[in-house]
Amino acid sequence: MVAHSPEGALGRHAQTTRDLLIEVVRSRHDRSADAHEASGSRYAIGFGGQWRDLLDDAREALAERGFQSRRLAPGGYQLPVVNDCLVYVWRVPGAPDAVSRFASSPTRRNGFFAPPPEPMLEEPAFWGLPERDSMEEGEVDELVRAAGDPMPLVIVMVHSTPRQLQSIEWAIAELNSSGKVTLHGQDCIWEPEFAAVGATTDVESFSDGVPVAPVLKPREHEGTGSDA
After folding, report:
1. Record's superkingdom (predicted)?
2. Residues of the chain with pLDDT under 70
3. What letter would DSSP give residue 90?
4. Cβ(168)–Cβ(102) below 8 Å
5. Residues 92-102: pLDDT tens digits?
6. Which of 123, 200, 215, 217, by CA, is between 20 and 30 Å from 34?
7. What are the backbone angles phi and psi of residue 90, rounded to the nearest 5°?
8. Among candidates 58, 56, 57, 49, which has minimal Cα distance to 76?
């Protein structure tokens, strides 16, 4: 059964996971953009190579809070596991069909069939959440029922260029029978402040259209008398 949204899949860890991932992505983008500018390269290939760092940064940040990870074959990438969900941070290429072709590599495809790790004796120490001495009633049965099912895959989509981090979205990714990926509960979790408030919605692009010159009216002749 496919989860309806990342918030539902991540449960009580959704908000803190969201905040941490935003911090990780923004930090990595800034460093990659600085490196690209310093290199003086005319091409964004090096900037696009941050994809592996994004995976490692997210795993390390969540591991510091006590979350486990799952290694995917054959590439060997280790992805964080939150609330029995696999979390994949991905910088989206510019191709229009990039999302539907997300599972084109064997390693990414295996992310849709990864079983959950063994239940942890202690919950991760995530800040801002109340501590619990034991699992609540019904949670043990839920873990047993889910033991044989693959984990939901929460895909965190990073849209960026060397000049700007444009947005961060997340969604539940589902692999259909034809090998294409569809998204559920897609939501934008971060965008630049000027985009959020719509500051540029009335500004036309410089790439198209015809500029319109302002209408100038002749100024009426003013008297030469001085103010009293």
Report:
1. Bacteria
2. 1-2, 35-36, 42-48, 120-148, 195-228
3. E
4. no
5. 998 999 999 99
6. 200
7. -140, 125
8. 56
